Amino acid sequence: MLYFNGVIVVEGKTDASFLSSFIKSEYVITKGYELPVEEMAYLNAVSFYKQVLILTDPDDAGKLIRQRIKISNSIQIDVDKKYCSKNNKHGIAECQKEEIIRVLKRYLSENPENEKKIKSSFLISLGLNSKKERTIFAKKVPVGIVNLNKLSQRLNSLQFDEEKIRKLVEEQ
Question: Is residue 112 part of a domain?
Fold first, then answer.
């Protein structure tokens, strides 16, 4: 397993699933052209703490998506289409693993990042296991509308501590 201590932006769940089979990282999925405003806000916020790699398909749609995502501290990654083709499809999920590792080599590590500080159990103790409560919380913190595990991951990426989170929840 390889590690990237940052955020990798991909087009779809299939891309994230393929990449996560050999690269442990945080993934944000654009769902094609429709990157929600909340996700863009999160990417802008997290870019102050972590590197953001934009890894979209090697086609015109992927290029357009890369152009639309303007984030400081982000790097657009290009893969060679000839190494990313299966069954007449050209995408990240169709890439050869070796090609992905080649283009990301300088960003990857063989060592995992430090253990996360904010755990899901802490968020549950604050009542954030409810989608309604997470949605209210997301209006104060640019984390997007996410499940509990993703919320934990994003709060860690944004370097929140328990005290700050507790105060924000108490203000709700």
Answer: no
pLDDT at 112: 84
**Burial (CB count <10 Å: 0-12, 13-18, 19+), residue 84:** buried
**How does DSSP assign 91-116, residue by residue?**
EEEEE-HHHHHHHHGGG-BSSPPPPP
Note the helical H segments in 11-130: 13-20, 37-46, 60-68, 97-104, 120-125
Q: Mean per-residue pLDDT for 111-131?
A: 90
Looking at the fold, whether 22 and 84 belong to one and the same domain comes out as yes
Same domain, 18 and 102: yes
* Span 95-120, pLDDT tens digits: 999 999 999 999 999 988 777 799 99
Instruction: State the CB neighbour count (10 A cutoff) for residue 2.
Output: 18
Q: Give residue-wise pLDDT tens across range 154-165.
A: 999 999 999 999
Domain boundary among 76, 107, 138: 107
